[in-house]
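Hi everyone, sorry if this is the wrong subforum. Our group has a chain we'd like a structural model of before ordering constructs, and none of us has done structure prediction before. Sequence below.
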Amino acid sequence: MTTILLAAAIVAGIGLLAGVGLAIAGVVLHVPVDERVERLTAALPGTNCGACGYPGCEAYAKAIAGEDAACNLCIPGGTNTAQTLAEIMGIAVEEVPERRAIVLCGGTEEACGLSYEYRGEQSCDAASLLYSGQRLCNYGCLGFGDCIKACPYDAISLRGGIAAIDPSNCVGCALCVPACAKGIIVMTESRGRAVNLCCSETSGHAVRKQCKSGCISCHICERACPADAVIYERHLARIDPAKCIGCGACAAKCPTKCIVMY
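Answer:
Right subforum, don't worry. Here is the predicted structure as tokens:
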């Protein structure tokens, strides 16, 4: 009986010492919690898209609280969210640049044919592994909708067999960008500017055989541009948004209509 009581006393003593030790450790190792982080996190959309440059909304909130990040980096949240974040931090509101995704491909099923019939997994990633995909153009959209699955805002659909983005639904989260196997979805802040929807870097002669909507390296747009905003690199007309004045001359002259005003 004495042995049992002694054992119980030892266990109780150890438990008491452990409890005291944990209490002391809790005080010594306590990390102060910034209440602003919780408020900032709650004010963010919660999509954890990473468009702000941080791995999630909470990480971005901590960066704001630590004054390592501006309050206008949340593209999906827009200016309203930026205003709320700024109010929490007690600083001036910064405007959020409007950013939207765009698919640089106009090669619909009617414009761009198939080089073979693909019967594998219905995924752009999978299809791109087999001779760069089933389309005649190796640069174009494969049309299996990996980007559609990645978009949480229902902003992407298939039109004519290729991905198309509805700018009224797109919030600029950029989750579709890494989902594109061809890398032809890009983010743009420019509006009212010309955009070449073709990404093919093959010769104009080859493009003529592959796609009716492709850039054929004719240089007509370059000559039509009054602002010298069009340059040619690797057989492809590229438009500098910083120089483009939005006159639409290049789009009007483009014979294949691959240049559009966005």
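For your construct planning: The chain has a mean pLDDT of 89. The chain has three domains: 36-89, 99-189, 190-262.
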